[in-house]
Design goal:
78% helix; 0% strand; globular
Length: 134
């Protein structure tokens, strides 16, 4: 298909891996306790669900998001354009989408900052990788 023509699939895979690694840091040592507290979860409790299923689903979602973003950027985007597009996609689309849902669900502003911040940085990293790897 024409829309997949020229896509750097290694860069897409690296972008997905970057989101996975960022998530490990973001929801691990950086914000685990605050995120758990805002969600009413005991940070010392074992995660719900089988870890392979949870991490597998997270990686698959990151891979789909990175591939879709690469398709939107088209092959070999200029780095400044890709970075800007990643930041805008993360903040204006993903984080604001969360903001709408969180407002109706009565979730905290702090939780929105944590989750929205992650996705803003996630897509900015996608832009960095996809814009730099030609």
């Amino acid at each position: 298909m024409a829309m997949f023509e020229g896509i750097n699939w290694l860069a897409v895979l690296a972008a997905a891996l970057s989101a996975f690694l960022l998530g490990g840091l973001w929801y691990g040592p950086l914000f685990r306790r605050a995120w758990c507290r805002e969600n009413g979860i005991d940070p010392e409790a074992p995660p719900s669900g089988h870890p392979a299923k949870v991490f597998g689903t997270a990686f698959a979602a990151a891979l789909v998001a990175a591939a879709a973003f690469a398709i939107l950027l088209r092959p070999e985007p200029p780095l400044p354009v890709a970075l800007h597009a990643g930041f805008v996609a993360g903040l204006a689309y993903v984080a604001m989408g969360f903001g709408i849902n969180y407002a109706f669900a009565g979730r905290s502003f702090k939780l929105w900052l944590i989750d929205g911040g992650y996705h803003t940085l996630q897509f900015t990293l996608y832009g960095l990788i996809l814009g730099a790897w030609h």
